[in-house]
Amino acid sequence: MKFQNASVCVFDEGTHVELARKLARDFGTVFYFCPWTQGGFPDQDDFEVGTGVEGVIRASDPFDLIPMVDLWIFTDVNNAGFQKHLRSLGKKVWGLGPAEEFELNRWMCRQWQKDVGLPFNSTTRLVGIDSLRRFLEKQQEPGFIKISRFRGAMETFKHTDYQISEIFLDKIERDLGPLKHEQEFLFETMIPGVEFGIDNVSVRGDYPKTSLWGVEVKDAGYLGKVSPLKDIPLPLRLVSVKLAEHLRECSGNISTEVRVGPDRKGYLIDLTCRFPSPPFDGWADMIDNLAEIFWYGAAGVLIEPVWNTKYLALAIMESDWATHSYLPITFDPKDRDSIKLHNLTQKGDKYYISPHQAGMEIVGHVVGTSNISLQHAIQKVQKVAESIKAPQLRIHCESLDEGLETISEAKKYGINF
Question: What percent of the chain has pLDDT over 70?
Answer without folding.
Answer: 99
